[in-house]
């Protein structure tokens, strides 16, 4: 900043050191070294006043000095509050420009007033004023004026967003961070406190431990519903593992190494347990998630919603307006803060209907996120039990048409990436969090049947009875008092909107993932037929073959869903053949599969497994008919096509690049070889791999790579119960056979026709011998 750091020219033309430059330099140096002046208020007042105008400090150092002098212990803080208000008015304009304009890098030249305030010790002084009551030895702690506390917090927040480094310096003070939580007990200062805490925790190097917050249980139980919803924005930072990028893109080698180093539960996991131990916490979140809001009316609702969002950079302005509405309601002697009480507020009636709706949506996003994280944690079964007991799923079902998925035209759909942290509107975030919650709720859990209503459960029973197969145990054990109400269950409603989405809509990715999670686990013929009867297979095939969809994420989600829908189901293959009824359609389908095996390999695995089962059911006329007619089964039945898949699956991965996303390629290649081993054809397949190497003129590379991959497979899966269970359930191949096949392939006997080493010539052995060495 030229006015602070530049030089003056004397009348004689000589340059002399600028006094204010000296002041700034000394203050900056003391902040770094801890030596010299600890704050600008220690400087002579006359000097500060003399240099104020040339330096364009706008009286901030002088006001800070007066604030310091009037805020000593036992002093009348009313004078101090007056000085703080004068400072606040200068700083708030800079903060407003930061929020309403495009965010710029915080620096002194952009926000000179906030920079000057921090430079002269304003931030430290406000922290000292706020924490002063905690330092007294008196039994009865002195109470500070609520308005003074609010203004202190607001100024601190303004400094955080406008001046680089302030948030990090506050985050480094654990005593101050924990103290802030105590201020949340006061409803009048709650909003400002929550906003500042959220900003601080977002940059804190070490995750805060919730059990270190004084009387956390009492604090949370004291919150009304709106405060609890706001508190979820803070909790989301404390229960999520640190974001170090897309989880699927992390190599499994790196993740396994990290798990070895961090064997004990992480802070996020400990915080999840702390929250679950708070009486009534999950029940209140369920009520928040399913709370109804006033229905928006008017043809221009969505446009109105987007107009609001363009200037709502975050929830601050909206929260402030809603707080004003609440305060009006309180003044009218209305004590409850739920929706019915706010409806009596004159200000709330003056707020646009869309603002009331988006306010509720923004909080539901945070609540659903917290529930989703807890569902994916180590206490998953405990959380599942509580969510079922408190009827979360029926409640969301009742909100589906009126709030979660209202009808509007395709032009209003926004296509964006699948990252849940993307910068998108509340409406989009709400839908994505809702779909992620459904996915987590259904995935490999018997409570998935709560997504249906009683009539739909009866339909599943009838399908099983007609097919003369027993009902799955989870369906029999479902508590019918906890399932969805109304004419349609949540799963059926989801299928309806899924068919209406534009081809490239990113919602399709999450919709497909949510439906697929319902089918995951041990294959259920009744579940598959329930979805097949609703035209899901034809819809998926249309999207893959004819819709023109180009999104790899969406296509991958549909391949995975199609695999779960068709696995071992002869009716599904018959339907497939009926839809893909021309060579052109079938070639288009194969082109999509072959364009990226990382995306489609789960479908390939499903077809290979299904073909193997059907070939063992030769006495079944219907199966034999489909086997002879189905173009897809005929294609995979040809050995050269299976070998082609095997070559590419092994070739597109190696140990260093294995991730949660592409490790399925390794397992699919193993499935092909396990089925070959069952038929005593394993040597044939291994020899084909060897011949492929020589044809492509890279002897040893393919088989050595596969050998290394299998060595990693042993380390990765033999220590993970969940992963092994998933492999067994999804393939219907006992995990013992998986382990046995891998051991056979990794055998060291070069005379064994089933060991990889016997197909690698000596000069090309162990190209990557040390790859997995610790």
From TrEMBL:
User: InterPro entries, per this entry?
Assistant: ARM-type_fold, TRPC4AP
Residues passing through the membrane, by range: none
Domain of life the protein comes from: Eukaryota
* GO biological-process terms attached to the record: ubiquitin-dependent protein catabolic process
Example GO molecular function term?
phosphatase binding
- One CC-aspect GO term: Cul4A-RING E3 ubiquitin ligase complex
State the protein's name.
Transient receptor potential cation channel, subfamily C, member 4 associated protein a
């Amino acid at each position: 900043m030229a006015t602070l750091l530049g030089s003056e020219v004397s009348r004689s033309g000589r340059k002399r050191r600028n006094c204010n430059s000296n002041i700034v330099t000394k203050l900056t140096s003391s902040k770094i070294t801890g030596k010299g002046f600890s704050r600008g208020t220690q400087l002579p007042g006359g000097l500060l006043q003399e240099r104020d105008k040339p330096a364009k400090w706008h009286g901030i150092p002088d006001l800070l000095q007066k604030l310091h002098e009037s805020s000593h212990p036992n002093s009348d803080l009313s004078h101090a509050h007056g000085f703080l208000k004068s400072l606040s008015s200068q700083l708030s304009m800079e903060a407003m420009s930061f929020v309403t304009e495009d965010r710029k890098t915080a620096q002194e030249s952009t926000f000179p007033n906030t920079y000057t305030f921090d430079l002269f010790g304003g931030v430290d002084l406000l922290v000292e004023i706020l924490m002063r009551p905690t330092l007294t030895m008196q039994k009865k702690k002195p109470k500070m004026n609520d308005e003074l506390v609010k203004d202190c917090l607001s100024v601190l927040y303004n400094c955080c967003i406008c001046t680089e480094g302030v948030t990090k310096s506050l985050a480094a003070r654990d005593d101050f961070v924990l103290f802030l939580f105590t201020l949340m007990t006061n409803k009048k200062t709650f909003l400002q406190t929550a906003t500042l805490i959220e900003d601080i925790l977002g940059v804190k190097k070490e995750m805060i431990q919730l059990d270190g917050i004084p009387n956390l249980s009492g604090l949370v139980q004291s919150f009304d519903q709106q405060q609890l919803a706001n508190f979820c924005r803070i909790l989301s930072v404390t229960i999520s593992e640190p974001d170090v990028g897309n989880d699927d893109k992390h190599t499994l080698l790196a993740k396994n190494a990290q798990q070895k180093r961090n064997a004990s539960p992480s802070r996020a996991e400990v915080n999840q347990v702390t929250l679950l131990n708070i009486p009534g916490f999950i029940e209140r979140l369920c009520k928040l998630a399913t709370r109804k809001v006033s229905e928006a009316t008017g043809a221009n609702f969505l446009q109105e919603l987007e107009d609001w969002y363009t200037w709502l950079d975050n929830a601050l302005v909206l929260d402030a307006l809603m707080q004003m509405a609440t305060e009006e309601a309180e003044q009218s002697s209305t004590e409850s803060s739920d929706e019915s009480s706010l409806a009596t507020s004159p200000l709330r009636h003056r707020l646009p209907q869309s603002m009331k709706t988006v306010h509720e949506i923004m909080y539901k996003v945070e609540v659903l996120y917290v529930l989703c994280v807890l569902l994916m944690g180590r206490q998953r079964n405990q959380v599942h039990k509580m969510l079922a007991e408190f009827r979360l799923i029926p409640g969301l079902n009742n909100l589906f048409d009126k709030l979660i998925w209202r009808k509007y035209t395709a032009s209003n759909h926004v296509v964006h990436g699948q990252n849940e942290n993307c910068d998108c509107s509340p409406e989009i975030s709400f839908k994505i969090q809702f779909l992620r919650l459904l996915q987590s709720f259904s995935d490999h859990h018997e409570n998935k049947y709560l997504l249906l209503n009683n009539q739909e459960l009866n339909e599943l029973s009838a399908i099983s009875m007609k097919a003369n197969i027993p009902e799955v145990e989870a369906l029999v054990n479902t508590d019918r008092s906890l399932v969805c109400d109304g004419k349609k269950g949540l799963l059926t409603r989801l299928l309806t909107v899924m068919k209406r989405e534009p081809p490239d809509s990113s919602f399709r990715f999450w919709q497909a993932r949510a439906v697929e999670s319902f089918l995951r686990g041990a294959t259920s013929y009744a579940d598959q037929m329930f979805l097949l009867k609703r035209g899901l297979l034809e819809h998926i095939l249309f999207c893959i073959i004819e819709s023109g969809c180009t999104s790899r994420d969406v296509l991958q989600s549909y391949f995975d869903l199609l695999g779960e829908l068709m696995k071992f189901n002869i009716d599904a293959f018959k339907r497939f053949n009926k839809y893909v009824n021309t060579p052109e359609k079938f070639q288009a389908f194969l082109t999509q599969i072959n364009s990226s095996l990382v995306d489609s390999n789960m479908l390939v695995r499903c077809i290979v497994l299904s073909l193997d089962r059907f070939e063992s059911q030769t006495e079944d006329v219907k199966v034999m008919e489909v086997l002879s007619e189905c173009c897809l089964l005929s294609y995979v039945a040809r050995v050269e096509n299976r070998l082609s898949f095997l070559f590419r699956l092994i070739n597109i991965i190696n140990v260093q690049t294995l991730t949660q996303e592409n490790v399925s390629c390794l397992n699919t290649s193993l499935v092909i070889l396990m089925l070959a081993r069952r038929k005593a054809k394993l040597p044939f397949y291994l020899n084909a791999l060897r011949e492929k190497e020589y044809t492509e003129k890279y002897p040893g590379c393919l088989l050595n790579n596969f050998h290394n991959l299998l060595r990693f497979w042993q380390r990765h899966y033999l220590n993970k119960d969940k992963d092994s269970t998933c492999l067994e359930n999804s393939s219907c191949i006992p995990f013992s056979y998986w382990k046995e096949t891998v051991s056979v392939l990794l055998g060291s006997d070069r005379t064994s026709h089933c060991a990889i080493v016997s197909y690698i010539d000596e000069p090309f052995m162990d190209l990557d011998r040390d790859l997995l060495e610790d």
